[in-house]
Specification:
It is a single chain. The protein has 271 residues and is an all-beta fold. It has a single domain, classed as Jelly Rolls. It is 1% helix and 49% strand. A 7-stranded mixed beta sheet has the order 1-20-17-22-15-13-14. A 7-stranded antiparallel beta sheet has the order 2-3-4-11-6-9-12, with no helix packed on it. It has a 4-stranded antiparallel beta sheet with strand order 5-10-7-8, with no helix packed on it. Belongs to the pirin family. It holds the Pfam family Pirin.
């Protein structure tokens, strides 16, 4: 079963350095507009952000998006109009289902920079009541396996409450998996059934920047992404790839570098 893989190189992403914020945009966002990279199914935003100590995003509104943060390093303080106050640390996943509207702020907490992914998805229904969720996943849970850390709220094993074990609930047809892949290790993943029978199974992979900015496949960590029996594409830190194929087609993710790679993988519009 064939798999099509189209790389999205880090140096081609939207990029801004505001001093207090160093950010990379996989999809069109803020002043970066590229209609060939506007969204992928319900996946609308993947921003890789580094916020300097004692700075952050002031209070601002959102509505009709599922907005979640995946903390890579440092600590992120979150306040919102629903009364939630959290300090998020490495391994935390915080989900804000904005629904009919919320306001929130995010700041670096403590004396160091915070590095995190901010991800937005389009909900499967408009006008939902705003909700907040928080989950934690250890490095051990993600080492050399694809840990499912976000899943649709109505999926088996997903608990619709603020804090609970298991995946973070999301009101979208989206699954997110995370892994720490050791050198010379290969993970496999079967592409899931899409929500629409007329569409191919879709996924998106992103390799988190751990060694610096735009290190490329020649420096930092490297993974090779391929379908069964295919040569595949090598991705460096900050790179991503659009993936499409037949339902249950096998995706292979091999660490071909000399260090642990942290990756996130999204099953997009999956049933």
């Amino acid at each position: 079963m064939s798999v099509k893989i189209v790389p999205r190189r880090s140096e081609e992403r939207g990029h801004a350095d505001h001093g207090w914020l160093h950010t990379f945009h996989t999809f069109s966002f803020a002043s970066y507009a590229d209609w060939s990279h506007d969204q992928y199914g319900c996946l609308r935003v993947i921003n890789e952000d580094r916020v300097e100590a004692n700075t952050g995003f002031g209070t601002h509104p959102h509505r009709e998006f599922e907005i979640f943060s995946y903390v890579v390093d440092g600590e992120l303080a979150h306040h919102d109009s629903m009364g939630n106050k959290e300090v998020l640390k490495r391994g935390d996943v915080q989900m804000t289902s904005a629904g009919t509207g919320i306001r929130h702020s995010e700041h670096a907490h403590g004396p160091k920079q915070v590095h995190f992914l901010q991800i937005w998805a389009l909900p499967y229904q408009r006008g939902l009541q705003p909700k907040y969720y928080n989950r934690h996943f250890t490095d051990a849970e993600k080492t050399n396996k694809l840990a499912t850390i976000v899943a649709p709220v109505n999926s088996p094993g997903v608990i619709d409450s603020r804090e609970a074990p298991g995946p973070t609930p999301i009101h979208a047809q989206l699954y997110m998996h995370a892994s720490l892949v050791s050198p010379q290790t290969t993970l496999t993943h079967a592409l899931p059934k899409p929500a629409s029978t007329s569409s191919p199974a879709k996924a998106y992979i992103h390799v988190i920047q751990k060694s610096g900015y735009n290190t490329g496949p020649a420096k930092g960590g490297r993974v090779k992404v391929s379908g069964a029996g295919e040569e595949g594409v090598v991705l460096g830190e900050g790179d991503g790839a659009y993936i499409a194929g037949e339902t249950r087609a096998e995706l292979r993710i091999e660490n071909v570098g000399d260090r642990v790679c942290e990756i996130v993988l999204f099953d997009v519009d999956a049933a």
